[in-house]
Amino acid sequence: MRGGDGGSRWVQDRIDRYGPVSKLSLFGTPTVLLAGPAANKFLFFSSALSTRQPRSVQRILGENSILDLHGADHRRVRGALLEFLRPDMLKMYVGRIDAEVRRHVEENWAGRGTVTVLPLMKRLTFDIISALLFGLQRGAVRDALAGDFAHMMKGMWAIPANLPFTAFSRSLKASGRARRVLAGITREKKAGRRQPEHGKAPRSNDLITCLLGLTDSHGERLLSDEEIVDNAMVALIAGHDTSSILMTFMVRHLANDDATLAAMVQEHEEIAMNKAEGEALTWEDLTKMKFTWRVAQEILRIVPPIFGNFRRALEDVEFDGYLIPKGWQVFWTANVTHMDASIFHEPAKFDPSRFENQAASAAAPCSFVAFGGGPRICPGIEFSRIETLVTMHHLVRHFRWKLCCKENTFVRDPMPSPLRGLPIQIEQRTSAPP
Question: Would you say 378 is a known binding-site residue?
Fold first, then answer.
């Protein structure tokens, strides 16, 4: 898989020159760059470090998002989000995700000669999240929210100067509109819960309904309305970008890897053979998609959607003999360990068998960190897995494709994006029903 990831090269060049621990200035703040499995473990598990998002991200997502909380507040909000993502809950979402994917494929892929993959995947994951997390059905409100969300993302990592005509200013305004929509949904669902004729809304309805229903041992709500809106914004971004990018790069790789594609087609055809035509996928079906998920993990290893992240030292703390002063930023990046030849043999080679028995992770803890690690490991891993497996099931069974661009490169801004959004030529497979 060829890439154009200049950021990864810059980090690796710096490590080659200064070693796995070095200091620099990022976003005008003194920063320590740490690299390697031991550094990852320190970053993920040290209580002396807290997450630190750029000010632009804080302004857009809100001050109460799980990304910037630590200690008891982080455990409280994370526990609330995990209530919605419990395994028994996730099993109930498979059929609803399958319905969204089928509708998306029929409307946007079937009968088309050429499609551009990344924007389609972004809209698909947005629609899934809108339905499952917010209970927002198709229509004008969802379409408007999708437009605001796209504008919001463009200024997430911009310089936080709220001046006219800047990307950050447009992003901030779009964020305000999106927050008003989510706040309105929260008020409506809260009012619905008070109406006796509605009965008690089941927690599995959607994320906001679930969060509204959570109480502590004294019967007090765990999260305020503002905390629900802020963390719904985080869930919207976290569940949208990583999955859409993963699936886009899976399509990109499969265009030039006939052997891997054939193995995936065989896996999914065997599952389909045991189902009636049109019957929705189930959790049990997903457990049989082992090879497909290994392919996804290998894509995540080579092109992790999250380039890296920041922590902040809450106190003076030492790592590997180096003192990190209180208040300094600490920066980590996934690519350093993902492409380390001492951990992953021939790291540039695409090899899904690395994940057959999780030996890659077991041999070097905190080396495969596509979803982070420790107490802050991404709570939506299983949700992302469901989205990915269901979508790839329908794509590889119904279509074959080839890339339109001869130059198979990508850039980061800060998420990886293939050239021109990955336009492909597609044709219907004759072996699968339309």
Answer: yes
